[in-house]
């Protein structure tokens, strides 16, 4: 159960329309694209493994590291953005083959993240292709533990997938999809750590079905969804006129991933319970006078309603934090992110409209509402950082 923010959210819960997917693991009921077929599956420690500090403190170190890469590039002290780089090394050095690889990534996006794919059409060609490549890697990673072959996946298989990731970052792709990602990370200041951390989220799904506190759950949400924002911002770019700090933009991307994944969790309480999983903080359930048995019974009570109100409020706080950074992105990259934010926020509205019955009723956004939200997202995307700030200030 995760989620691909894209910012894109593709983690284990459902493909948050991915962003716009950068938000939840691909829907289990959807047809699967055989992205991991034929994978021949060095283990690395996750960047946030130190248990002595809070999850937010540990994750923030990854945010700072990625922001520093972008700053170094802007100063010209790191690799410059090289959109004319011929291709990666190895067998896939033919420009036509690399172009085909990106096209294949685009096809996967169009198949499984239609809204996000539509939003990417406003990006420059190079940014668009790079985002497709990241999306496909996230989806393939998610399918390892949530796809048709999930029952055969072991921790060692994930170790081999992580070693393969390192090879991709070093210019040694295994197939066409890898080639597209390898080319992308050679052109943009993308750090490998968020990719490794997403794999760590898959490891958690193999061994963990309960989370004792929100601190534990936050870390899981970062692994499976917040990471996507950190992968994507270097490609999407920050608006030249933005006065926001690089760290604050990355924090907003992280917040959107967390918000999307929390929304996935709240939407899928009943579905997860039927699989023996509870992705809700155990200490907060206890404080509300609830237990796992109450969830397995699936009866909406006043205690459940009050508990859900608090969980929804928290998710909305993360969406509010995310809004602060969307307008700071490059203008051509804002639309898919705004679409993700607005559409996923409406899932929370739907849970409320269902009287908090997320045991037997699935909260969703209907096609009409989706279509109506896209122009609203596009309108917000047209506003630059300062204009949107002034608009929000006047409405308060």
From TrEMBL:
One of its GO terms (cellular component) is plastid. GO terms for molecular function: 15-cis-phytoene synthase activity; geranylgeranyl diphosphate synthase activity; squalene synthase [NAD(P)H] activity. It comes from the Eukaryota. Pathway: Carotenoid biosynthesis; phytoene biosynthesis; all-trans-phytoene from geranylgeranyl diphosphate: step 1/1. Keywords: Carotenoid biosynthesis, Isoprene biosynthesis, Transferase. It catalyses: 2 (2E,6E,10E)-geranylgeranyl diphosphate = 15-cis-phytoene + 2 diphosphate. GO terms for biological process: carotenoid biosynthetic process. Its EC number is 2.5.1.32. Belongs to the phytoene/squalene synthase family. This is 15-cis-phytoene synthase. It comes from Glycine soja. The lineage of its organism: Eukaryota, Viridiplantae, Streptophyta, Embryophyta, Tracheophyta.
């Amino acid at each position: 159960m995760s989620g691909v923010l894209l910012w894109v959210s593709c983690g284990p819960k459902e493909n948050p329309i991915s962003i716009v997917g950068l938000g939840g693991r691909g829907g289990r009921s959807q047809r699967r694209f055989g992205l991991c077929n034929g994978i021949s599956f060095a283990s690395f420690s996750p960047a946030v493994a130190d248990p002595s500090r809070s999850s937010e403190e540990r994750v923030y170190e990854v945010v700072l590291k990625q922001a520093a890469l972008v700053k170094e590039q802007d100063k010209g002290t790191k690799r410059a953005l090289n959109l004319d780089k011929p291709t990666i090394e190895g067998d896939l050095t033919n420009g036509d083959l690399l172009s085909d690889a990106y096209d294949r990534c685009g096809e996967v996006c169009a198949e499984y993240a239609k809204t996000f794919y539509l939003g990417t059409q406003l990006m420059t060609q190079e940014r668009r292709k790079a985002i497709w490549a990241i999306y496909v890697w996230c989806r393939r990673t998610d399918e390892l533990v949530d796809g048709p072959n999930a029952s055969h996946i072991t921790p060692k298989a994930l170790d081999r997938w992580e070693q393969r990731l390192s090879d991709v970052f070093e210019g040694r792709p295994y197939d066409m999809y890898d080639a597209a990602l390898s080319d992308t990370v050679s052109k943009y200041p993308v750090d490998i750590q968020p990719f490794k951390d997403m794999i760590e989220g898959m490891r958690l799904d193999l061994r963990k079905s309960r989370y004792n506190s929100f601190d534990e759950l936050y870390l899981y949400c970062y692994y499976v969804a917040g990471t996507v924002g950190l992968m994507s911002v270097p490609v999407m770019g920050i608006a030249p006129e933005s006065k926001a700090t690089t760290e604050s933009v990355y924090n907003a991307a992280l917040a959107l991933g967390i918000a999307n994944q929390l929304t996935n969790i709240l939407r899928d309480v009943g579905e997860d319970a039927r699989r023996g999983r509870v992705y809700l903080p155990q200490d907060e359930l206890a404080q509300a006078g609830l237990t796992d048995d109450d969830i397995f019974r699936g009866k909406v009570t006043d205690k459940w309603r009050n508990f859900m109100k608090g969980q929804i409020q928290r998710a909305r706080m993360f969406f509010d934090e995310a809004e602060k950074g969307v307008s700071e992105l490059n203008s051509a990259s804002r639309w898919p992110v705004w679409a993700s934010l607005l559409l996923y926020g409406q899932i929370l509205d739907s849970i409320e409209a269902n009287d908090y019955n997320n045991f037997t009723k699935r909260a969703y956004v209907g096609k009409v509402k989706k279509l109506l939200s896209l122009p609203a997202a596009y309108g917000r995307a047209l506003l630059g950082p300062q204009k949107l700030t002034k608009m929000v200030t006047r409405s308060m």
